[in-house]
């Protein structure tokens, strides 16, 4: 049994006339695997990430998603987080007045409590943050600032990876993590992600461009189009897409 | 913000309609006859053993009050207050004037313990170190009388006078006579005039020249009796070059009927003096349908009478069914400064109309207003503020920032700023924002593992951070908890 098992997932935007976005998507992710999902704009990549995280705006009409055998779709957003689902946002949200440090600690302790674990002690927490932040080039000053407030594009993405490093998810979903990054920032973020690859952890890397996959080399590449996975392969598939573009799939569908 | 976790546990442990401080203490009390006439005023004055001049002062106020209409301009809606159905004086029955903590009715002490306000002198007597590190002297007012004032001796060594105002009338008549009503005149407004006629107790503080008060001074007000109004009167005088930080907290039992609270607070800061006045107001707000709760009509005003004096108001308002309150500063002295930091939270059917007045009279005076209003449930939350510069107020400066946060879509936030300038050199800035806790923010926080209430508490605490920072440490933690508890049931 796969750690994350998405089977024939259909989903639409909430509401009566909600448009169907996912149309029978299936994907299995095992621990230690990194799956890249590529596809043209509007193919449903971001929707998939929101549905896995549990955002309210969508309605699953058919299919199942399990995490280690448990029904993920039946869980609340924060319950999923505590079970190990982490979404690195394409556009991280600002929370003014709440220091990044406070946010991290509240989140970590909330998850630990839900899992019946002890809250982390202050010295242990500070040590953990200092260690992880240093690797991502995040200063103490940035940790004192409000969550994502006044952060540059690169800082926001690094902060997302820091959160991931602290929360240690089982399954990490990275939604267009490369968008808005220059090459130097891309390198730092990718190194951060690579450092988090582990035999216990699965990752889904969503991206429009192949360039991210030069830095985060995936085990599998899937092409998504019109709400389904239309082709799967190894890392070489990304290079093929880079050379030929998505036109082939778009024509197929037309 | 390590208090967040604790806060949230507290939130969980209570129901929407459960006001933590809503218990009633069964103690015998002595009341004035129901209703209000000259005899009631005489009764109160006689109970307090007051001098003739004060009785006359009260009677004058009462006569004027009878001619005044109740103000109706605030954005609050409430049934007529049955002034003749109220008790204007209630005192726990005991021998007059407790000399020490030991003489206080154990039931009253237990009440304050329940409120989390140990009258700390006892701890000190027993040699227990206070947990907060710093010492706080407490004056506790139960219904109409002050039941205990702690650390009196230690304060006396510094020359600080901190005692019930009824006692100050007897022991320091010259000070009371000189300053009482000098900031909020007897005829100031309907509720202040009522207070002047029937006030029963409250705190009196005098800080002598050049003295920095060695500890925080604090008063806790508790309404216990049914159908009683509480009319406390606080008078604080900071003589030249002195400094004092004063805190007040308030709670009341849960009752189906409304109770009236009409207090007056007067602050006087002489040259180079500074007064910092902090309030955590948590009167019973009524239930989720708007039944019961305190009607809170309060007049608070500070007079920066001397040059370079400073008065700072900080308030966290979470309680009361109706709040009508505008702590103000009269910037009379040259280069004097006024500050107003406010967090006003309304939930359920609460109605808040609160703000400040900064009256610039002297030269080079400055004021700063930071107001954070949070409305949830079906409540209404109004900021009403006046900033004015008079002709001689050359170079008056004000900065105002009013932010409102809405939780849900059945509440209202309103900002009503009045700005008047009669001096061309005045420089007034006003910023205002209204926002909602966005779905995106909640989703983001929940994706990281916070449940809806934890997420809301975190976002709101971030929103009010600028003001929380102004509160003394012990109060800030308390206020933070209170904020979360007040917002219980506002999401999901």
Describe the structure.
The complex is a heterodimer of chains A (254) and B (492). By secondary structure, chain A is an alpha/beta fold. Chain A is built from 10 helices and 12 strands. In chain A, the strands form 3 sheets. In chain A, strands 6-9-10-3-11-12 form a 6-stranded mixed β-sheet, with helices on both faces. A 4-stranded antiparallel β-sheet of chain A has the order 2-1-4-5. In chain A, helix 6 (153-167) runs parallel beside helix 7. The mean pLDDT of chain A is 92. With 492 residues, chain B is α/β, with parallel strands linked by helices. In chain B, strand 3 and strand 4 (145-149) form a beta hairpin. The A-B interface holds A 53-56, 76-78, 81-82, 85-87, 89, 92-99, 102-103, 105-111, 113-114, 119, 122, 146, 163, 167 and B 1-2, 4-5, 438-441, 443-452, 454-455, 458-459, 461-466.
Would you summarize the structure shown here?
Chain A is an alpha/beta fold.
The main pleated sheet of chain B reads as:
11 strands, mixed
Name the biggest interface. A-B, 37 and 28 residues
Q: Would you tell me the overall average pLDDT of chain A?
A: 92
Amino-to-carboxy terminus distance of chain B: 23 Å
The total of beta strands of chain B comes to 23
DSSP E strands of chain A, number:
12
Instruction: Calculate the mean pLDDT score of chain B and round it.
Output: 81
SSE order and pairing:
The complex is a heterodimer of chains A (254) and B (492).
Chain A: E1 4-13, E2 20-29, E3 34-38, H1 45-53, E4 58-67, E5 70-71, H2 77-82, E6 85-88, E7 95-99, H3 100-114, H4 122-135, H5 140-144, E8 146-147, H6 153-167, E9 171-175, H7 183-195, E10 202-207, H8 211-215, E11 220-225, E12 228-233, H9 236-244, H10 247-253
Parallel strand pairs in A: 3-10, 3-11, 6-9, 9-10
Antiparallel strand pairs in A: 1-2, 1-4, 4-5, 7-8, 11-12
Chain B: H1 3-13, E1 29-31, H2 38-47, H3 52-66, E2 90-92, H4 106-114, H5 120-125, E3 136-142, E4 145-149, H6 152-157, E5 161-164, H7 165-171, H8 173-179, H9 190-198, E6 203-207, E7 216-222, E8 233-238, E9 243-251, E10 258-261, E11 264-269, E12 274-281, E13 293-304, E14 310-317, E15 322-325, E16 328-331, E17 337-346, E18 351-360, E19 366-375, E20 380-389, E21 397-406, E22 412-421, E23 427-436, H10 439-447, H11 452-463, H12 465-468, H13 473-486
């Amino acid at each position: 049994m796969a750690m994350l098992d998405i089977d024939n997932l259909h989903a639409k935007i909430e509401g009566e006339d909600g448009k169907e976005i996912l149309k029978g998507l299936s994907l299995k992710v095992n621990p230690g695997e990194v799956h890249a999902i590529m596809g043209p704009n509007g193919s449903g990549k971001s929707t998939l990430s929101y549905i896995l995280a549990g955002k309210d705006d969508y309605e699953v009409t058919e299919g199942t998603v399990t995490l280690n055998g448990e029904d993920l779709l039946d869980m609340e957003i924060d319950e999923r987080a505590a079970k190990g689902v982490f979404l690195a946002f394409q556009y991280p949200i600002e929370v003014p007045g709440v220091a990044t440090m406070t946010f991290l600690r509240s989140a970590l302790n909330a998850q630990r409590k839900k899992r019946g674990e002890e809250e982390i002690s202050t010295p242990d927490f500070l040590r953990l943050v200092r260690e992880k932040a240093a690797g991502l080039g995040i200063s103490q000053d940035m940790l004192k600032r409000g969550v994502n407030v006044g952060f540059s594009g690169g800082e926001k993405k690094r902060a997302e990876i820091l959160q991931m490093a602290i929360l240690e998810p089982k399954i990490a979903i990275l939604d267009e993590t490369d968008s808005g990054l220059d090459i130097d920032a891309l390198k730092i973020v990718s190194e951060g992600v690579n450092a988090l690859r582990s035999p216990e952890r699965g990752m889904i890397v969503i991206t429009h461009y192949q360039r991210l996959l030069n830095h985060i080399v995936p085990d599998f590449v899937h092409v998504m189009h019109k709400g389904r996975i239309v082709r799967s392969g190894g890392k070489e598939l990304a290079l093929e897409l880079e050379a030929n573009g998505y036109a082939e799939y778009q024509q197929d569908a037309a | 913000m390590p208090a967040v976790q604790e806060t949230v546990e507290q939130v969980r442990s209570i129901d929407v309609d459960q006001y933590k401080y809503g218990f009633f203490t069964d103690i015998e009390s002595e009341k004035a006859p129901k209703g209000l006439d000259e005899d009631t005023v005489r009764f109160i004055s006689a109970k307090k053993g007051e001098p003739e001049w004060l009785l006359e002062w009260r009677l004058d106020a009462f006569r004027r009050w009878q001619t005044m209409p109740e103000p109706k301009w605030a954005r609050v809606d409430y049934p007529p207050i049955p002034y003749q159905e109220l008790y204007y004086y209630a005192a726990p029955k005991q021998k007059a004037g407790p000399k020490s903590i030991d003489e206080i009715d154990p039931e009253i002490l237990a009440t304050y313990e329940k409120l989390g306000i140990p009258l700390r002198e006892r701890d000190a007597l027993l040699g227990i170190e206070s947990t907060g590190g710093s010492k706080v002297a407490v004056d506790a007012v139960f219904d109409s009388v002050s039941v205990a004032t702690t650390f009196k001796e230690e304060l006396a060594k510094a020359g600080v006078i901190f005692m019930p105002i009824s006692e100050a009338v007897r022991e320091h008549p010259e000070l009371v006579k000189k300053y009482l009503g000098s900031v909020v005149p007897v005829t100031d407004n309907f509720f202040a005039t009522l207070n002047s006629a029937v006030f029963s107790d409250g705190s009196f503080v005098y800080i002598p020249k050049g003295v920095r008060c060695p500890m925080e001074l604090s008063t806790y007000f508790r309404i216990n009796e049914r159908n009683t109004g509480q009319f406390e009167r606080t008078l604080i005088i900071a003589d030249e070059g002195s400094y004092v930080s004063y805190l007040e907290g308030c709670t009341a039992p849960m009752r189906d009927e409304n109770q009236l609270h009409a207090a007056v607070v007067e602050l006087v800061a002489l040259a180079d003096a500074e007064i910092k006045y902090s309030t955590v107001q948590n009167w019973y707000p009524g239930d989720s349908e708007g039944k019961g709760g305190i009607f809170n009509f309060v007049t608070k005003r500070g007079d920066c009478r001397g040059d370079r004096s400073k008065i700072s108001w900080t308030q966290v308002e979470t309680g009361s069914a109706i709040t009508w309150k505008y702590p103000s500063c009269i910037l009379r002295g040259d280069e004097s400064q006024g500050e107003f930091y406010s967090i006003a939270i309304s939930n359920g059917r609460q109605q808040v109309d609160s703000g400040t007045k900064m009256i610039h009279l002297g030269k080079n005076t400055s004021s700063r207003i930071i107001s954070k209003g949070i409305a949830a449930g079906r409540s209404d939350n109004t900021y009403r503020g006046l900033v004015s510069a008079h002709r001689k107020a050359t170079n008056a400066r004000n900065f105002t920032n009013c932010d409102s946060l809405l939780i849900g879509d059945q509440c209202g936030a309103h900002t009503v700023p009045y700005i008047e300038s009669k001096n061309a050199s005045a420089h007034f800035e006003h910023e205002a924002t209204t926002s909602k806790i966005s779905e995106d923010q909640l989703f983001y926080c929940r994706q990281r593992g916070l449940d809806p209430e934890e997420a809301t508490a975190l976002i709101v605490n971030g929103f009010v951070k600028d003001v929380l920072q102004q509160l003394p440490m012990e109060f800030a933690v308390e206020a933070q908890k209170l904020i979360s508890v007040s917002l219980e049931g506002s999401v999901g």
